[in-house]
Design a protein that fits this description.
This protein has a single domain, classed as ATPase, V1 complex, subunit F (Rossmann fold, 3-Layer(aba) Sandwich), CATH 3.40.50. The chain contains 5 helices and 4 strands. Strands 2-1-3-4 form a 4-stranded parallel sheet, sandwiched between helices.
Length: about 100
């Protein structure tokens, strides 16, 4: 199963350097379309959504985070980074998929 990232251009570029495909989105319509494509794919097992994009379609992302098992939907920090009381991106990825960045 593959990992896919949906988010801002820097996140998608960064993950592409590690071999993870992604979709750059900046509107709710683009986010919904990218999410629809990812959910329809039988190859995608984990969808990483940056926080800035998750805010655009917050109700849908929250529902998927709570109820979707395959693919697993994980919200990751956006371009603003993480606040001191939140886990780092590497901790989020480690908890979600067991890969240490």
């Amino acid at each position: 199963m593959k990992v896919l990232v949906i988010g801002h251009s820097e996140a998608v570029l960064g993950f592409s350097l590690a071999g993870v495909n992604g979709h750059v989105v900046s509107t709710a319509d683009e986010a919904n379309q990218a999410l629809d494509e990812a959910l329809a794919s039988k190859e995608v097992g984990i969808i990483l959504v940056t926080r800035d994009v998750a805010k655009l379609i917050s109700n849908r992302v929250e529902d998927l985070k709570l109820h979707s098992t395959i693919p697993l939907v994980v919200e990751i920090p956006g371009p603003e980074g993480v606040s001191p009381d939140e886990p780092s991106l590497s901790e989020v990825v480690l908890r979600a998929i067991g890969i240490k960045l």
